[in-house]
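haha ok so turns out i had the wrong file open the whole time. this is the CORRECT one, sorry everyone. sequence first:
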Amino acid sequence: MTARAHRSTRRLSPDRVKELILLGIITGSVVVFGFLVEGYLSGRFFNRLTTSVVIVGILAAAQALVIFSRNIDLSVGSIVGVAAYLTAAFLASNAWANPVIAMLVAMAVGAVLGAINGVLVAYGKVPAIIVTLGTLALFRTLISLYAGGVNVTAAELPDWVLGFNNVTVFSIAGFDLRLVFLVLVAVVVILQWALRRLRGGRRLYAIGSNPDAAQQAGLAAPRLIWLSFVGAGSLAGLAGFMFMIRAGTISATAGSGLELESVAAAVVGGVSIFGGSGTMYGAFLGAILIDTLELSLVRVPEVSEFWRDAALGILILLAVILDATLQRRFHRRLTREVRRPSGSDSQRRRMTISGVPDGGVADA
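then structure:
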């Protein structure tokens, strides 16, 4: 290995290593299933994958936003259900509404519910797992009472609803790039840019990495944590809109079980459950990996449904082990580099002793 290549390898962060590992696992999975399943590498499977991953991908981004601050949101599935049902009911009464308006309604509903979670966690100082476990049941109960056992059927919705999920931006040899998938990609890219470039995003990482140090530094931790829950709720509302256009007929039980998938996608994607580490790109890749395995294992008759569920649990365990291993390794490497004097450190010592570097003439 050349010196330049060695330096490039050393510059890789734990997050980048996790993303590269995920890309390798996804590629390897596709190759393996390509041999096991006839007609696997086709445009039809690609179209199914890029359409079905949208809901879990958006929820993985929502979950990651909260986990970065060392919290968790177990109510995202219920928020999806509430947003999907209320948006469908709104469209049933307002057929004039277009997709943009419906999307904004769903996101507004999710933001309100996320704000409730955020107030209790950030300002009420109640542990996030307790708050969101309670609101998971509360939100579901409220929407069930509101629905009264009545579903919003596809026949009551505007004509564009059922066709929106299949809107194709362009197609190449049967491989369609759907609009809903582009929405997911846009969400991931924008959030990743905001987290890395904006001050609030960097401070959110700092809060999750070391809450005590962040508090001593004067960071507005409660406000940022509240905003992270509002953002997560808004994204869950967007996922509710995607659920509505995919399902057509919406009941009060919509979105049940999506909590586990969202947490799994984020954790498998390298988002540390201990906060302060991970990327939106990783959460996105985690969602793709989980959805790829689910859609692929169904097509292998030798694999039972029980083993398909076990595969998800194994992925979560392996992701946590990988995260802990990488964090320890990079911490040890960083510690060695800090203790080892570099060339510039030696030069600064010479400057301190002689007054100027390399025998130069000091200013008068």
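The beta strands are 168-172, 175-178.
again sry for the mixup
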